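Table S2 (text version). Query chain:
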Amino acid sequence: MAENLSGGEAIVRQVAANGIGTVFGLPGAQMYPLFDALERSNAIETICTRHEQAAAYMAYGATQSTGRPSAFSVVPGPGVLNTTAALCTAWGRNAPVLCLTGQIPSAYLGQGRGHLHELPDQLATLRTLVKWAERIDTPADAPGLVNQAFTQMLSGRPGPVSLEMCWDVMAQSGDVEMLEPAQIEAPPGPDPDAIASAAKLIAGARNIMIMAGGGARHATAEVHALAERLGAGVTSFRSGRGIVADGHTLNLPTVAAHTLWPETDVLIAIGSRAELQYMRWSGMRTLITEPEAPPHLIRIDIDANEMSRLKPHVGIVADAAVGAAELLAAVEATATPDPAWSERFDDVRASARQRIEKIQPHLSYLDVIRDVLPRDGILVDEVCQAGFTGYFGWPVYAPYTYVTSGFQGTLGFGYQTALGAKAVNRDKAVVSINGDGGFMYGVQELATAAQYGLGVVAIVFNNSAFGNVRRDQQMHYEGRLIGSELANPDFVRLAESFGIEGRRAATPEALKPVLEEAIAADRPVLIEVPIAPDSETSPWEFIIPPPPGSDRPY
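Corresponding structure-token output:
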């Protein structure tokens, strides 16, 4: 039955019908009807940030820590442009994030009159950043287009989408027929011939490795079962961490996996771009589109386009869970893995851990954090020395408990993203590790944490520098430093000025009791960890192994 609703009300009602329970955002003139509807909604909690970028990052954190879609809302023009770093991060991580924004009055569209927040073509701009973007022209159109947005977000390869509505339309009322939630159709099953070809390759293999990416996070059981049948080691770089838990007999941390890579005869990449093997281990500036065997490359990916970006020897276009399950069924009777392969994993893991011990002080700090953080606790990293070390030195025990910015390497995303993760995981501990430089990108969100009681523990490693940039300038530019040394505030006093507890810990041993207290208190806390300049060991040899004879990590 039709109801008389404003455009803003219609959007909010249909977004709620699709299961969104939290919207992050900042209100403004074009968005008043939508935010008023949010305020009156019994189904949605609204968390308002101090900067538009934080609204989008918090939505990203909510999605990446749950696997469920999320939403944020900001004003058009400069407001939505402030969110674009988060949107490109969501695009890179295949994160289903919905951007709800406004637009100038409908009569002014295309007139170039310089109306408030006008862009030359906002939809065109957004379409370069997200999977799909559309305008809702009438309140009656809102339910259908909201459902279409969810279908686009969640069908095939997931990704961010955007909906806009003109200022006048958002305030107008009309008859609106609300709809049932969007129904996401299951993707077609894999080509039986591709499954058979992959099974044939596997039948002749002895040393098999699985690369599990973010597209396989929902396929934990299927990846486990396939790995166990094949005696395959399972590695993940960032997005797929925790699919096979660190500590499992078949888990191969990346440093251990790199040791075994030359002996691998088949690589099965599941929901992964295989960036680790065919970009980082082969040279960041060497483009490989058609890998030579060995190893033979088998890819399982829901996105058919992936098969031309990195051409496998066998490509299986399928959902990760379905593809892995069907491949397992096909190899049950034919696979003949060599048990000597998996019997080596313990020794290789131990050797890898011994090798990375030199990455100090950050490995020791990560060890302390891992010891204190519950197994289901969430760590959000940053573009900093501790964050880089976490790529290979942070044990992950379950999917969605380790959140990164993926290949975008988005400096400054971390603390804001962690707030979003905490907002939708109130029963879990959330720790955000930051460098001093990146943390200052979102420092204003300390106010958001205090206002909404978001108990994120922010650890700020303060080396008074953009550490990577400073090291590169020292090593490769004769020590000429520009823009890499930082004058910082007193972070403890800064936190206290926001009404947040500030602490300081100068050693890993000192950090442990402080962190234990902070997690137990479940309230916003900032812990500053001072790091002496030039005291950090570079982690890069374990992230991008240098070519023989080179002193560069790429």
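Notes on Table S2: The CA atoms of residues 140 and 176 lie 5 Å apart. The longest helix spans residues 508-521.
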